[in-house]
Specification:
alpha+beta, eight-stranded mixed sheet, three-stranded antiparallel sheet, 11 strands
Length: about 350
């Protein structure tokens, strides 16, 4: 590991400052600021704990090296064996310390708006969009996050033409941001009588959720229309104009929400999606200085950017950005995405470390 002691010492002084701020009697007067400082406190405490653990492992490792050079063969063998485990633990701690020292992207703390659209492949593409929805729901459950469907347009075959959902919890965007792009599926559709494998796609866009203070939306920039909800839903959808369409005139963005019986609730959900889209567009303009490599990891937002292939006959999932393949397709579709997230995070971390001059 590089010598990060001076950087860690800077964070230690910041920790002392944070603890003074948190102890102040008026700390919770500004709930938003308090929440941000509490998150920083947790991250800083985690960094200091990881650094202390690494230093302890390092001391033990050096002591074992001395024993391994000694004349007691049994003791030397035990020391070498223990150092194998210590080296593995130190590598993991080093990675966590390096990540914690990187310049912080504040969007990583945010909740996420996830939009999924069926792409090429007709009805099979809409079924795959539904499969991705289920995959993300199960992933959210495994992470202890909350999952809320904001809008959905069902297809005739039981899938979705498009949908949007909100995932909320601890550092949601940090883990979900890698899902943006085109997901391709290769399998035999349920409607295929000849057993032929078809290729279909669905597009995923993961946006950090924005608040009203993040994006200014002027009332005169909006055109809001109400209409009757379509699709399944019984007699109610035919009688009331609860669906809401929101047009943001300067950007040309249109959002439609129709899943709630209440027009007000549909409007609230629609504004949530609109704010997220506008916020992400602004973020991408501000981050054009990212290297091409890093943009390829977190996605350019382009609808044609293929990031992952799910091959059902071979039970294979391949992420094309890092050339990583898993043969546990069933587990991935069950929401076990951590292996892909870990590989992508490591690749992005190496790039960010180079940008920040922290070394490899």
């Amino acid at each position: 590991m590089m010598d990060y002691s001076s950087l860690v010492e800077r964070r230690r002084r910041r920790m002392e400052e944070l603890e003074r701020l948190i102890a102040a009697p008026d700390f919770f007067n500004d709930r938003g600021a308090a929440s941000a400082l509490m998150r920083e406190h947790r991250r800083t405490r985690g960094l200091l704990e990881d650094w202390a653990a690494w230093e302890q492992c390092r001391r033990q490792f050096l002591e074992n090296e001395e024993l391994a050079r000694g004349e007691d063969e049994e003791m030397a063998a035990m020391a070498r064996l223990e150092n194998e485990a210590l080296a593995e633990r130190m590598a993991g701690l080093e990675e966590r310390v390096q990540y914690s020292l990187l310049p912080r992207d504040e969007a990583e703390d945010r909740d996420a708006i996830v939009e999924i659209r069926a792409g090429t492949g007709g009805g099979e593409a809409s079924l795959f969009a539904g499969d991705l929805l289920g995959m993300y729901q199960r992933y959210a459950v495994s992470k202890g996050w909350a999952f809320e469907l904001l809008s959905a347009s069902p297809s005739d075959v039981g899938g979705f033409r498009e949908l949007a959902c909100r995932v909320s919890g601890e550092e949601v965007f940090r883990f979900m941001k890698y899902e943006s792009g085109v997901h391709r599926v290769q399998r035999v559709p349920v409607t295929e009588t000849q057993g032929r494998i078809h290729t279909s796609t669905a597009t995923v866009a993961v946006l950090p959720e924005a608040g009203e203070v993040d994006v200014e939306i002027r009332p005169e920039d909006l055109r809001i229309e109400t209409c009757r909800s379509g699709g399944a839903g019984g007699q109610h959808v035919n009688r009331t104009e609860s669906a809401v369409q929101i047009f943001h005139l300067p950007s040309g963005i249109m959002v439609r929400c129709e899943d709630e019986r209440s027009q007000m609730k549909n409007r609230e959900k629609g504004m949530r999606i609109l704010r997220a889209r506008l916020f992400e567009a602004e973020r991408r303009r501000a981050h054009e200085q990212y290297s091409a490599r890093r943009r390829s990891l977190i996605g350019s937002g382009a609808r044609e950017e293929k990031i992952r292939t799910y091959n059902f006959p071979q039970s294979r999932v391949t992420d094309h950005r890092v050339g990583y393949t898993s043969y546990n397709l069933e587990g991935v579709m069950a929401g076990r995405l951590d292996e892909f997230v870990a590989v992508l995070q490591r690749a992005e971390m190496r790039e960010r470390m180079a940008e920040a001059g922290l070394g490899a």
